Amino acid sequence: MNIDFFGSLPLIVIWLALGAVGIAIQAFVRNNTRLIFGYYVATLVATAVLAIITAGHKSIAFNGMVALGGFSNYFDVLFCGAGLMTMMAARPYLQRENAEIDEFYTLLVSAVSGMMFMSHANNLLVLFVGVELMSISFYVMAGFLRTNSRSIEAGLKYFLLGAFASGFLVYGMALIYGATGSLQYDVIASHIATGQVNFPALLSIGAVLMAVALGFKVAAFPFHQWAPDVYEGAPSVVTAFMSTAGKAAAFASFIMVFAALMPHGNVLTPKLQNMLALVSAITMLIGNITAIAQTNVKRMLAYSSVAHAGYLLMGIVANSDQGSMAVVFYVTSYVFMQLGAFVVVGILERGNEQHLQISDYAGLAKRQPVLAFAMAVFMFALAGIPPLAGFFGKYLLFVSAIESGFLWLTLVAVLSSVISAYFYLGLIVKMYFSESQGHHEPNPAGMAGITLVVAATASIVLGLFTTQLLSVYGSW
Amino acid sequence: MGVSALLATLFGPLLGSIAILFIHRDQTTAIKRTAMVISCVTFLLSLLMIPAFDASNTALQFVVNQPWIPALDAGFRLGVDGISLPLVLLTTLIMPIALLASYDSIGKSVKEYYALMLLLQFGMTGVFMAWDTFLFYVFWELILIPMYFIIGIWGGKDRIYAAIKFFLYTLVGSLLMLVAIVWLGLESQWAGHGFTADLTKLQQISSHVGFNIQQFLFWAFALSFLIKVPLFPLHTWLPDAHVQAPTAGSVILAGVLLKLGTYGLIRFNLGLFPQASVHFAEIISVFAVIGIVYGALVAMVQTDIKKLVAYSSVSHLGFVVLGIFSVTTEGVQGAVLQMVNHGISTPMLFLCVGVLYERRHTREIADYGGITKVMPRFAVLFAIAMFASVGLPGLNGFVGEFLTLLGAFKSQTLGSWTYAIISASGVIFAAVYLLWMFQRVMFGTNDNAENHHLRDLSRSEYWQLVPLALLAIWLGVNPKPLMNMSEKGVQAVVNWVQNPSTAAPTITVPTQAPHAAHSMNTHR
Hints:
Chain A is mainly α. Helices cover about 75% and strands about 0% of the residues of chain A.
């Protein structure tokens, strides 16, 4: 058994910090949220730094279970970054809601470690462990506001449907194992590529089931129904985290699993591509069209996040390095744009679902110029208007899709982008062009301000550093 | 010096826009002055490009070529040629005038307004300068955001509807163009030259692209540009946007924004798809002719002066499109002239409407009458604007319109006189609706009590109108310098479209751009 200690440092650190030390601290120090908060911030920072340091050290360790370095470490940094941004935003939010219990941060870091499992997985079982670790943390976090029935409903709904999706995941893995005789990505890939498949029918069903399960996690049609309810009901900061980092993790797995399942030249590959292309097209249309009809900001953003899953799937459909690179870039910018938008919602919101309607944003530019500006940046970035970050990702996705012969899919993406501009602009119209009704005292942003500054800055300048980001991804 | 002037012209407004963000919002005078000084200095600096410009050379000049995203071969590629330089100068000229027109009329959110105006200028100048499809697209879309806010925040009663309509219309077209830009880059890759956004390389391969695909690409670009122009029947966003926009917004919209579309047609559609351009010249010209007549007829029945001027733009821009797709030297040259001339006369008309609106808060023709008696100086300038727009010989409008008609008349591509003959009626109609409007507003009896004591032009208004009026007269009497500037570039484009297999490509850069790298370094 080969254990690569150096390469697995980020994983080891987050496990130890969480599993051994973190739990111990919690056992002895009761309700010192400040200490726990600081401790987990330090954990995430250390993990991210180690991920950067060990990024160049590529290897497959633990008997082929775990991939280290490169791509996976890129995602580690992204997850830790999203985790940190969420923690900054969560503390003032939870304090306001009287729900700051130190377990929240433990759950959040445990979700991050689950995501890291997912991006480091080189074996379907490790992937499963990662997905479950992340999802179970999410179920609890979604229902974290115990006195709020919407939050509890969100937690329960997410749990029931998520458990169902996990069933698909396991079943798909079992069938793939049956067909190829292995759970390891690279072995599966080589078996499929060389045609050493026992029951081709099993493989195709297994692949479809994997797509179902991962499609559920990224909220792609027809498995997106849970997303609006859960995203709306969950505390805003949790939604911010689930809908961004969670989706990024699912896409990291999507890239790796489907790179293994769709080798070039295999009979199954074009069929899977077409299936995913159809899913992608319907997802973006449904997400964007439904978002137009929403009056609740959180719900609107939830549907927009569904639509973005559709865009991201274009890169998977393309089934090329270009496509994966596009997904990585897009998901990176998406994390900042969407997380930022939900954090703004969280700052403006009041207990008991107050101030969540689009009409509550009327005249925000007058009352809260900085918040309104940040929100406008996120909206334009999500709509993909250059020179903001969303545009560059979209451009890369278009290149990869057309390159692989999916012009029709690109045209659907164009159409749905136009549709999406309508509701993103709608919010800006409310904020900037309408007069405010009634007087709302703003909530103090506190540390959430840091998150906003980081997210807005990234949304503005990420595009200018496309090259650097792509080269980081390429060289790792 | 040319490169420095070009970079200053492009980045000056951006820096100004950022500088304004650092001024406190209550210091409105400081904000206005900063914006004004920046735009005037930018204008003067842009003039430095004229002596440095070599009109006998068809290649792009003052070339800047810096890598941006090597993986996509996208770069900061900037330069001007005889077709884009006049439009750059038009942009830098119109902006100080638009800002001056905003001095008194823009009362709320002054800081945001001036920052957005300068950002808008940055985008517009960039569109005319970019010879990289990716960069072009970024500038193209960058314009949407400030214009959307300018209409939406500082506009009239139905401003929100107009702003959204403007945004969505333009976005539909431009996203299709984005697909075409990507596809074109991939065509280069499939031809073995690697993915690229470099317009000079793309021009080398685009005329060899299969005709079916060329047709698709042609329309993807054309739709985007024709919406911006706007060509009938894609024009419906324009009257709304114009009527709702504040005066300065209309000035920019009519003066520069519409020309982005016609410029794009020459640069991209003629430049990249010569065969498809010839193939579709007739159908586009038919719509151009319909637009000329339709715009004029609709303008005639308007009761709102601003709407009338807006529809006159639809009609006038029809001439430009007709000239471009006649694919003759006269036609395209006329189109370039008409772009500049329309960019001078229509802003004047909008400024005049603004002057009236400022005093009476109505734009209904019926509310006016006999204004000449109370505002004699205004009457003179309004008359110049009106006659320039009509195309009276001796004023600037005449030359361009005449050349486009001549081009359409002679055009072998169109192959019929009908286009020119029907379009000529547009000139007559223009005289009818503009003169009739002028008569109802300015002459007759001043029997409305509210109109008895209107102030004549203020000093600021005077300075908005006089430079444009002088330019209108000067270009009418002596269009030669402007024609010389664009002549070679136009000839090259026409040659290229007529014989793509033998003619030299029109979008070229000097093989050595010695000062480009150097000056970028010093300017960063």
